[in-house]
Amino acid sequence: MGKVVLITGSSRGIGKAIANKFEVNGYKLLTPSRSEMNLLDNSSIEAYCNKIEADIDVIINCAGINTIATLDLLNDKDLNSMLQINLLAPLKIIQQLNEKMAGNFIGHIVNISSIWSVVSKEGRCAYSATKAAINGITRTLALELSPKNILVNSVAPGYVNTELTKKNNSLAEISNITSLIPLQRLAEPEEIANLVYFLASDQNTYITGQTIIIDGGFVCR
Questions:
Q1: Which terminus in the chain has less CB density within 10 A, N or C?
Q2: Prediction pTM value
Q3: Candidate list 27, 48, 127, 159, residue with the active-site label
Q4: Active-site annotation holds for 127
Protein backbone atom coordinates (compact mmCIF):
# COMPACT_ATOMS: atom_id res chain seq x y z
CA MET A 1 0.00 0.00 0.00
CA GLY A 2 1.21 3.51 -0.83
CA LYS A 3 1.89 6.16 1.73
CA VAL A 4 -0.92 8.46 2.86
CA VAL A 5 -0.79 12.25 2.84
CA LEU A 6 -3.41 14.64 4.21
CA ILE A 7 -3.43 18.01 2.43
CA THR A 8 -5.65 20.96 3.31
CA GLY A 9 -6.28 23.74 0.82
CA SER A 10 -5.65 21.50 -2.18
CA SER A 11 -8.33 22.83 -4.51
CA ARG A 12 -6.22 25.55 -6.12
CA GLY A 13 -2.87 27.32 -6.30
CA ILE A 14 -0.02 26.02 -4.18
CA GLY A 15 -2.16 23.36 -2.53
CA LYS A 16 -3.25 21.93 -5.86
CA ALA A 17 0.36 21.78 -7.07
CA ILE A 18 1.38 20.02 -3.85
CA ALA A 19 -1.42 17.46 -4.25
CA ASN A 20 -0.37 16.79 -7.86
CA LYS A 21 3.25 16.29 -6.79
CA PHE A 22 2.36 13.70 -4.17
CA GLU A 23 -0.13 11.95 -6.45
CA VAL A 24 2.38 11.42 -9.27
CA ASN A 25 4.78 9.99 -6.70
CA GLY A 26 2.32 7.31 -5.66
CA TYR A 27 0.87 8.71 -2.45
CA LYS A 28 -2.73 8.14 -1.46
CA LEU A 29 -4.29 11.58 -1.07
CA LEU A 30 -6.69 12.74 1.61
CA THR A 31 -7.87 16.16 0.42
CA PRO A 32 -10.99 17.01 2.41
CA SER A 33 -13.42 19.52 0.97
CA ARG A 34 -14.97 22.22 3.13
CA SER A 35 -18.12 20.14 3.49
CA GLU A 36 -16.03 17.19 4.74
CA MET A 37 -13.85 19.20 7.12
CA ASN A 38 -14.76 22.80 7.91
CA LEU A 39 -11.58 24.44 9.20
CA LEU A 40 -13.64 27.12 10.91
CA ASP A 41 -15.16 24.48 13.17
CA ASN A 42 -12.96 22.43 15.51
CA SER A 43 -15.68 19.84 16.01
CA SER A 44 -15.76 19.29 12.23
CA ILE A 45 -11.98 18.86 12.21
CA GLU A 46 -12.17 16.33 15.03
CA ALA A 47 -15.00 14.42 13.34
CA TYR A 48 -13.09 14.13 10.07
CA CYS A 49 -9.86 13.08 11.74
CA ASN A 50 -11.65 10.47 13.83
CA LYS A 51 -13.02 8.85 10.67
CA ILE A 52 -9.53 8.27 9.24
CA GLU A 53 -8.62 4.63 9.71
CA ALA A 54 -5.33 4.49 7.83
CA ASP A 55 -1.98 5.48 9.29
CA ILE A 56 -0.91 8.93 8.14
CA ASP A 57 2.59 9.40 6.76
CA VAL A 58 2.44 13.11 5.88
CA ILE A 59 0.39 16.13 6.91
CA ILE A 60 0.50 19.28 4.78
CA ASN A 61 -1.31 22.28 6.31
CA CYS A 62 -1.74 24.50 3.28
CA ALA A 63 -5.18 26.08 3.69
CA GLY A 64 -5.07 29.74 4.61
CA ILE A 65 -6.79 33.09 4.20
CA ASN A 66 -5.35 36.57 3.95
CA THR A 67 -7.86 39.34 4.52
CA ILE A 68 -5.95 42.58 4.00
CA ALA A 69 -6.97 45.31 6.43
CA THR A 70 -5.15 48.10 8.20
CA LEU A 71 -5.48 48.32 11.98
CA ASP A 72 -8.39 50.77 11.91
CA LEU A 73 -10.35 48.54 9.51
CA LEU A 74 -9.53 45.13 11.00
CA ASN A 75 -12.74 43.65 12.42
CA ASP A 76 -13.22 40.80 14.87
CA LYS A 77 -14.81 38.47 12.30
CA ASP A 78 -11.88 38.63 9.89
CA LEU A 79 -9.35 38.43 12.71
CA ASN A 80 -11.00 35.38 14.25
CA SER A 81 -11.35 33.66 10.87
CA MET A 82 -7.65 34.12 10.09
CA LEU A 83 -6.64 32.92 13.54
CA GLN A 84 -8.84 29.85 13.21
CA ILE A 85 -7.97 28.79 9.66
CA ASN A 86 -4.30 29.82 9.55
CA LEU A 87 -3.29 28.81 13.07
CA LEU A 88 -5.75 26.91 15.22
CA ALA A 89 -6.95 24.47 12.53
CA PRO A 90 -3.43 23.26 11.62
CA LEU A 91 -2.65 22.80 15.31
CA LYS A 92 -5.90 20.87 15.85
CA ILE A 93 -5.18 18.62 12.86
CA ILE A 94 -1.69 17.80 14.14
CA GLN A 95 -3.05 17.25 17.63
CA GLN A 96 -5.64 14.82 16.29
CA LEU A 97 -3.47 12.91 13.84
CA ASN A 98 0.06 12.71 15.25
CA GLU A 99 -0.77 9.42 16.98
CA LYS A 100 -1.70 7.97 13.58
CA MET A 101 1.85 8.80 12.46
CA ALA A 102 3.66 7.38 15.49
CA GLY A 103 3.61 3.78 14.25
CA ASN A 104 5.44 4.61 11.03
CA PHE A 105 9.20 4.53 10.58
CA ILE A 106 9.18 8.27 9.99
CA GLY A 107 6.49 10.93 9.69
CA HIS A 108 6.56 14.38 8.15
CA ILE A 109 4.52 17.53 8.76
CA VAL A 110 4.88 20.64 6.62
CA ASN A 111 3.06 23.86 7.51
CA ILE A 112 2.71 26.45 4.78
CA SER A 113 3.79 29.78 6.23
CA SER A 114 4.61 32.98 4.33
CA ILE A 115 7.33 35.57 3.84
CA TRP A 116 4.95 37.85 5.75
CA SER A 117 5.91 35.86 8.85
CA VAL A 118 9.43 37.32 8.73
CA VAL A 119 8.81 40.66 7.00
CA SER A 120 5.56 42.53 6.70
CA LYS A 121 3.52 45.07 4.81
CA GLU A 122 0.69 47.44 5.59
CA GLY A 123 -2.61 45.64 6.08
CA ARG A 124 -0.98 42.33 7.01
CA CYS A 125 -1.19 42.65 10.81
CA ALA A 126 -3.42 39.62 11.43
CA TYR A 127 -2.00 37.52 8.60
CA SER A 128 1.59 38.14 9.67
CA ALA A 129 0.69 37.27 13.25
CA THR A 130 -0.85 33.92 12.27
CA LYS A 131 2.05 32.95 10.03
CA ALA A 132 4.69 33.96 12.59
CA ALA A 133 2.78 31.83 15.09
CA ILE A 134 2.84 28.87 12.67
CA ASN A 135 6.64 29.16 12.59
CA GLY A 136 6.68 29.09 16.39
CA ILE A 137 4.40 26.06 16.53
CA THR A 138 6.62 24.33 13.98
CA ARG A 139 9.70 24.76 16.18
CA THR A 140 7.92 23.59 19.33
CA LEU A 141 6.29 20.55 17.72
CA ALA A 142 9.59 19.55 16.14
CA LEU A 143 10.85 19.13 19.70
CA GLU A 144 7.74 17.49 21.11
CA LEU A 145 7.26 15.02 18.24
CA SER A 146 10.92 14.10 17.74
CA PRO A 147 10.64 11.05 20.05
CA LYS A 148 8.06 9.70 17.57
CA ASN A 149 10.47 10.39 14.68
CA ILE A 150 8.08 12.98 13.21
CA LEU A 151 9.83 15.83 11.42
CA VAL A 152 8.03 19.18 11.42
CA ASN A 153 8.93 22.09 9.13
CA SER A 154 7.43 25.23 7.61
CA VAL A 155 7.74 26.55 4.08
CA ALA A 156 7.39 30.31 3.64
CA PRO A 157 6.63 31.24 0.02
CA GLY A 158 6.95 34.71 -1.39
CA TYR A 159 4.92 35.91 -4.36
CA VAL A 160 3.57 32.98 -6.37
CA ASN A 161 1.90 32.94 -9.77
CA THR A 162 -1.57 31.88 -8.65
CA GLU A 163 -5.12 32.94 -9.37
CA LEU A 164 -5.26 34.66 -5.99
CA THR A 165 -2.16 36.76 -6.74
CA LYS A 166 -3.69 37.85 -10.03
CA LYS A 167 -7.00 38.60 -8.33
CA ASN A 168 -5.40 40.74 -5.61
CA ASN A 169 -2.97 42.62 -7.87
CA SER A 170 -3.32 44.46 -11.15
CA LEU A 171 -0.91 43.78 -14.02
CA ALA A 172 0.91 46.99 -13.12
CA GLU A 173 1.20 45.92 -9.49
CA ILE A 174 2.50 42.47 -10.47
CA SER A 175 5.07 44.14 -12.71
CA ASN A 176 6.21 46.31 -9.81
CA ILE A 177 6.36 43.31 -7.47
CA THR A 178 8.44 41.41 -10.00
CA SER A 179 10.92 44.26 -10.17
CA LEU A 180 11.49 43.91 -6.40
CA ILE A 181 12.33 40.20 -6.62
CA PRO A 182 16.03 39.56 -7.36
CA LEU A 183 15.14 36.68 -9.69
CA GLN A 184 12.77 39.06 -11.51
CA ARG A 185 9.78 36.72 -11.60
CA LEU A 186 7.07 35.20 -9.44
CA ALA A 187 7.45 31.62 -8.26
CA GLU A 188 5.44 28.93 -9.99
CA PRO A 189 3.25 26.79 -7.70
CA GLU A 190 5.19 23.71 -8.79
CA GLU A 191 8.40 25.20 -7.41
CA ILE A 192 6.83 25.51 -3.97
CA ALA A 193 5.44 21.99 -4.30
CA ASN A 194 8.89 20.60 -5.10
CA LEU A 195 10.30 21.99 -1.84
CA VAL A 196 7.33 20.79 0.19
CA TYR A 197 7.62 17.33 -1.33
CA PHE A 198 11.32 17.08 -0.49
CA LEU A 199 10.71 18.07 3.13
CA ALA A 200 7.85 15.56 3.43
CA SER A 201 9.46 12.67 1.57
CA ASP A 202 11.82 9.91 2.65
CA GLN A 203 14.64 12.05 1.27
CA ASN A 204 14.32 14.24 4.35
CA THR A 205 15.58 12.36 7.37
CA TYR A 206 17.21 15.14 9.41
CA ILE A 207 15.68 18.56 8.70
CA THR A 208 13.17 19.52 11.39
CA GLY A 209 12.02 22.65 13.20
CA GLN A 210 12.93 24.90 10.29
CA THR A 211 11.14 27.65 8.38
CA ILE A 212 12.46 27.64 4.84
CA ILE A 213 11.85 30.77 2.79
CA ILE A 214 11.31 30.32 -0.95
CA ASP A 215 10.87 33.78 -2.44
CA GLY A 216 13.43 34.40 -5.19
CA GLY A 217 15.48 36.49 -2.76
CA PHE A 218 12.70 39.00 -1.95
CA VAL A 219 13.42 39.21 1.80
CA CYS A 220 17.16 39.66 1.16
CA ARG A 221 16.63 43.22 -0.03
A1: N
A2: 0.96
A3: 127
A4: yes
| Domains annotated on the chain, with CATH | 4-158+189-216 (3.40.50.720)
57: left (phi over 0), alpha (psi -120 to 50) or beta: alpha
CB 193 within 8 A of CB 136: no
Average pLDDT on 39-53 reads 97
Q: What's the chain's length in residues?
A: 221
CA distance 28 to 23: 7
Summarised one tens digit per residue, pLDDT across range 140-186 is 999 999 999 999 999 999 999 998 888 878 999 999 999 999 999 99
- Average pLDDT over all residues of the chain: 95
Contact call for residues 48 and 34 (beta carbons, < 8 A):
no
